[in-house]
């Protein structure tokens, strides 16, 4: 009987293995992201082809091992390892971690009164796009649930060239002088000695450049930690100049409003989720698309005419402030729908290059100094990270392109074949066109260098809807100030109080309460209590 039991056991094992191999067993609790490899095997029940090296030479099975062989006499091993040594490209300086997806933009309203841009005209017209959702401060492998800027960059493949929008979840930007870019990101990144995030650096920068405070208050508010990429509203910070077929100019702010509804997480909720899944945002987006629960955003634009901007009492081009209520009207434009996952993360996400200077006829673009600098430095960083031919990488290619650029680091595509490589020429190379609608006058904007606390005061008192939200902002700020050195702390509290006496009072009181509580318990006990609080969020029995 012993042999019979062994044979029966082997039959059961083989049958189970066969069921697994044929994908007969499905666990309904497994999310789509975790089923990716199984989906591939289901789609390809046999190996997808014969293994080769990059030159196309087939790999013989004896060349897939190197022990006890003349290991460098075959190409497979040297090529495999050499490529692995070089498979990483430069990480993005900011927005390093992100997830890509494809979709489309659909026009839902006639806006020809405001712009001649083909992509925005023709109700029902659909334009394909690629998007990249990202955090801003974290490194490529970092967690997604921190209180930092979340963004969506999108590239619309229009018939008039690529149109790129680079959006963030706060409505305002951190600074209006482009020279502040490098100092800002360095203050928010790791300390060069400790290699740790250092809140003394952050608040030292902000207290010395209070124009950054408004955006910081947005981050410390409830919108600072959205409940996934799908449930956040997103905004290009700039005021765009657009024009219609008659050459009439309008000034607009684009708003992408989540059709899933805006939803946010508290700090404790974010900590509880991060304890289980640091890739929560990316997983949520991937699974939603896989389940055909396609996320969408409604595109609106806040509009002012040229005459309107001449008769208001604030700078509408200041990216650190909101437009004042009652000085503009809002028009619906269309919808962005994300409905297709990328086939390969590196090909379609890491190689994607988004440039706010990619505009189309009918959209002149912003006139502020931040945007003028971005026109220069976004292509510069992409030339460094991806090479001078980055727009010839498939994910970045426009529908139509004819240039006088040649050669350089691949990809080259057809390299313009045998066409003339200089302009002007008399040999029928590509020629420019005339846009008779394009405005002939240009605005010259003189931006104030004074630090203005009014936008931060307006956000605190008028945008935040109630005292409970104001208290949460104060508590979040106080929590971030606990380990800030006294000189920076005092300067920060002074700026907060100058912004709003109520804000300064609340932050001071909250900070004193935190310090009093910390004095009563040692660090180990404090950690235990935080862990217990997270456990209460994770464990259903609570």
From TrEMBL:
Protein name, UniProt field: Catalase core domain-containing protein
SUPFAM superfamilies to which the protein is assigned, alphabetical: Heme-dependent catalase-like (SSF56634)
The family this protein is said to belong to: Belongs to the catalase family.
PANTHER family assigned: CATALASE (PTHR11465:SF9)
GO biological process: hydrogen peroxide catabolic process; response to hydrogen peroxide
KW Transmembrane helix (keyword) present: no
Residue stretches making up the Catalase core domain: 52-431
GO cellular component terms attached to this protein's record: mitochondrion; peroxisome
Annotated signal sequence range: 1-19
Ligand binding (heme): 378
Keyword hit for Oxidoreductase: yes
Molecular functions per Gene Ontology: catalase activity; heme binding; metal ion binding
PROSITE patterns, per database record: CATALASE_3
Cofactor: heme
Organism: Manduca sexta (Tobacco hawkmoth)
InterPro entries given in the database record: Catalase, Catalase_clade1/3, Catalase_core, Catalase_sf
């Amino acid at each position: 009987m012993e042999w019979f039991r062994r044979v029966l056991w082997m039959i059961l094992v083989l049958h189970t293995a066969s069921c697994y191999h044929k994908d007969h067993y499905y666990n309904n609790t497994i999310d789509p992201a975790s089923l990716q490899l199984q989906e591939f095997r289901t789609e390809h029940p046999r190996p997808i082809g014969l293994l080769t090296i990059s030159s196309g030479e087939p790999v013989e099975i004896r060349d897939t091992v190197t022990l006890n062989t003349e290991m460098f006499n075959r190409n497979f091993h040297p090529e495999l390892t050499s490529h692995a040594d070089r498979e990483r490209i430069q990480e993005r300086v900011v927005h390093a971690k992100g997830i890509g997806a494809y979709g489309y933009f659909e026009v839902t309203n006639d806006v020809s009164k405001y712009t001649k841009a083909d992509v925005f005209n023709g109700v029902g017209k659909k334009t394909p796009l690629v998007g990249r959702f990202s955090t801003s401060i974290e490194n490529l492998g970092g967690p997604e649930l921190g209180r930092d800027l979340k963004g969506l960059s999108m590239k619309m493949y229009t018939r008039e060239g690529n149109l790129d929008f680079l959006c963030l979840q706060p409505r305002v930007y951190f600074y209006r002088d482009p020279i502040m870019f490098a100092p800002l990101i360095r203050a928010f990144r790791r300390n060069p000695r400790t290699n740790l995030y250092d809140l003394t650096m952050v608040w030292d920068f902000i207290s010395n450049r209070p124009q950054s405070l408004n955006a910081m208050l947005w981050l410390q508010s409830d919108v600072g930690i959205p409940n996934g990429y799908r449930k956040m509203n997103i905004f290009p910070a700039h005021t765009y100049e657009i024009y219609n077929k008659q050459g009439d100019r309008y000034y607009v702010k684009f708003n992408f409003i989540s059709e899933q509804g805006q939803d946010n997480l508290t700090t404790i909720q974010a900590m509880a989720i991060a304890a289980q899944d640091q890739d929560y945002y990316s997983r949520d987006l991937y699974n939603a698309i896989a389940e055909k629960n396609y996320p969408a955003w409604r595109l609106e634009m806040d509009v002012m005419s040229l005459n309107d901007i001449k008769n208001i009492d604030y700078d509408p081009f200041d990216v650190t402030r909101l437009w004042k209520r009652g000085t503009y009207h809002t028009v619906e434009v269309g919808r962005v729908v994300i409905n297709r996952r990328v086939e390969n993360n590196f090909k379609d996400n890491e190689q994607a290059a988004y440039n706010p200077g990619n505009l189309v006829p009918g959209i002149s673009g912003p006139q502020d100094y931040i945007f003028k600098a971005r026109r220069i430095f976004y292509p510069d960083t992409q030339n460094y990270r991806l090479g001078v031919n980055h727009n010839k990488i498939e994910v970045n290619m426009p529908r139509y392109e004819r240039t006088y650029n040649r050669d350089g680091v691949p990809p080259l595509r057809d390299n313009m074949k045998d066409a003339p490589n200089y302009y002007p020429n008399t040999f029928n190379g590509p020629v420019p066109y005339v846009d008779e609608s394009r405005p002939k006058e240009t605005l010259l904007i003189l931006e104030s260098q004074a630090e203005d606390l009014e936008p931060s005061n307006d956000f605190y008192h008028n945008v935040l809807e109630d005292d409970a939200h104001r208290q949460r902002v104060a508590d979040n700020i106080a929590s971030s100030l606990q380990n800030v050195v006294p000189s920076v702390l005092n300067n920060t509290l002074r700026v907060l109080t100058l912004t709003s006496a109520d804000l300064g009072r609340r932050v001071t009181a909250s900070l004193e309460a935190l310090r009093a509580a910390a004095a009563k318990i040692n660090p180990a006990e404090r950690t235990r209590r935080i862990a217990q609080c997270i456990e209460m969020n994770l464990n259903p029995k609570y």
